[in-house]
Amino acid sequence: MDRYDFETMGGVLAASIAIALNLMFLQADAAFGTMRGQLVLIPIFVGLAIALSGFVAHIRRSRGEMVIIDRFWAGALAYLTLSAGCSAFFQPRPV
Q: What pTM was estimated for this model as a whole?
């Protein structure tokens, strides 16, 4: 196994954990009715933008570098980090 295998597996694991964090945040938001559920779109779009930029970089390069895997890994980590931040800082509290 090389670096790209670990980045791929780590990216899938990070994205899975981030999805679970988003689901827990949305369920808590629905239970308390604070209407902050749209905040989960920020980590999703940032992670996707970083990951999709790998396709653009891959098309522009002529060498056989694995830019797509590197950007997917970076996008998944950004998604996980922002999802954790969203869950930590915007916890719905009863009023």
A: 0.84
Identity at 82, one-letter amino acid code: L
How does pLDDT run along the chain (95 residues), one tens digit per residue? 888 899 999 999 999 999 999 999 998 888 887 788 888 999 999 999 998 988 888 888 766 677 888 899 999 999 999 999 988 888 766 66
Contact 83, 24 (CB under 8 A): no
Tell the residue number behind the tokens 């997917």, with chain if given: 72
b (16+ CB within 10 A) / e for 8-29: beebeebbeebeebbeebeebb
